[in-house]
Amino acid sequence: MKQYLKHDAWKVIEDSFHPEFNEITESVFSLGNGRMGQRANFEETYTGKTLQGNYVAGVYYPDKTRVGWWKNGYPEYFAKVLNAANWIGIDIEIEGVKVDLHQATIHDFYRELNMKEGYLLRSCDISLSNNKRIKITSIRFNSMADDESGAISYSITPINFSGSMDINAYIDGDIQNKDSNYQEKFWDQVKVEAKENRSFVWSKTKKTNFEVITGQEVHIYQNGQKVHNQAQFVTREKYSALSYHVEVVENEPTTIFKYAVNLSSENHQTNDFEITLSNYLSKITAKGFDQMLREQALAWAEKWNSNDIVIEGDVAAQQGIRFNIFQLNQTYTGKDDRLNIGPKGFTGEKYGGSTYWDTEAYCIPFYLSTAPSLVAKNLLIYRWKQLDKAIENAQKLGFDQGAALYPMVTMNGEECHNEWEITFEEIHRNGAIAYAIKDYVEYTDDKRHLLDYGWDVLIAIARFWKQRVNWSDNLQKYVMLGVTGPNEYENNVNNNWYTNYLAAWCLKYVQEVHQEISKSYPKEANLKFEQSQLKVDELADFQRIVQHMYFPRDEKRGIYLQQDGFLDKIIAPVDQIPSNQRPINQHWSWDRILRSCYIKQADVLQGMYFFESDFSKEEIERNYSFYEPLTVHESSLSPCVHSILAAKLGKEDKSYEFYTRAARLDLDDYNNDTEDGCHITSMAGTWMSIIKGFAGQSVQNNQLHLAPFLPKQWKSYRFKINFRKDHLEIEVNQTGVKVQNLANHNTEIVIHDKRHDIAANSTVII
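The structure assignment produced for this chain is given below.
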């Protein structure tokens, strides 16, 4: 765990340079706006430890899978979100010496991620090898108001000299993904150009033929006046630059304003690329940097007004939750149902930036409660649009009759993960997608979604489960063999409890949906059933599997087993592992991990979190008490589930401990892996730790329920929440709970199992 970043309620601050942690800081201070993003690389040359990253949403490359052996049905590629053209580049040379913090003497350094207004600020005081001392101040942001653009204000002030300075503002498309399997570059040039104060690089991906044009316009100011120096144009393959030679005066700043635009062929006609780019640059430069920055602050103010969580009395916890919410909002805005949420968002390349089951299991609840319902709905439509590919994926593995296996990892609906135990065995992802449909409909009451989209997905998933189970004469039960659960520290197991339970629930739920839409939309439903070729006996087959599914259990302990044979392992708590061997995935062999009892993330507890009402508090307590001491939490998705369940069980201190780990996972680099990028999808789990854990939010019988407690470390916490047509603000403090109805209609809420009526635009104190 690293704690070099300062605690602040609205900012993340590095108040002295830590080059050994620079890649971590680049991840944490990343920027995005849903359409584009980049890591917090320096604008100028930096030859120290760095991972360059600029990304354009929806643009990917099918990098050829790299494995030691091939198996039938194996994905041919691993999709990668591409490291796109670097638009932030501003090289500075002062009388023959390039500005490079790795080579300079640093007198003072400050870097700040301003989460309230959505920008990255840096200032530093350095001396170059020629003894020229300068101060650099830069501010940059990715515009939320004009979401295909970004802007930089970059100032250089000579401290101990007057002289000359060379500026090279560039766009570099000649880049490579760090995670390229064969060190291949994924972009070809279409065109580069530089003229007047603009330049662009137009590139096209190999194989997938995505096209992106990245353009810049540069303005230079001294003494508040625009400098009309003629740029020198530098172009070469995949590179264009505007170079300026300026005279500088001691203690007088020279400011470079750089405006940039990323346009993708996903959103624009390539025939009009250059005209569209020119018009976009004209639009944002007419506003100017200061107005764009004001609009950025207003856009973020609107977001914070709906989804902020205000904590009084614990600045580390306050910074943690705001950081998580900030990164979620930077990654996905819900405007485009072709886009989804990658585990690293715009902060790094690990996991390829593709879509995982994390979206359905963790992210959708955040967007349901904090954004218009269309945002979450678009995430479901994303999967519905890829149903044909999911059916193809199942067919590749030998399934038929319209069975669908959604991919563990995807960009376009095809499976593209490059580890066999994930590709073939981690089939619980199917259940998470079905659960998300139920979660959305229950929360929004949008039952029409079941007819228009949900049924198609659910029947195809049910058909997969029907074929994936088999009857065991020995057990006289249906079993599921050769799977991997969410706990990836156990592979190729039989009867993973979570997977079996999720499959049985899916088969039961599709029957409920059949009844619901038959009742609510009889004519349209019959047509839908015909289109899906529903057979008379299919629902009966599903019900038979539900009634006879096998769930491994230890009767002596009164717990469900992770899978068959789990108790054959040596059972020893995590606290017996020496601290110098943690995380075990960085110190132990894979063979040793697989044979151990240690759990990467919850399996049984994940199921109990999803289906809490199916189990008594005593059952949850027994399973929690057995599995929590065995869990190493080396998946970012693990702590939040434990936090929520601990809250339900009244283990308030433990719930808070897990919340802190989830909230500060990247800020403090708990798992020694933040340099690869932040854990974006698990950040929604941090939000859930407070709302579903501390506040006890649930939906029961079409009503919003809360069962809040106040962590003893806090004086109060406050949040807003949307539920159907209701809009509420909840405050939990040391005297009770205050609920404000922000809507123009009366509503009812259940708090600690007691109903409370709240008139329109009024407040009750409980």
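Interim note for the steering committee: The two ends are 40 Å apart (CA to CA). The first strand starts at residue 11 and ends at 14.
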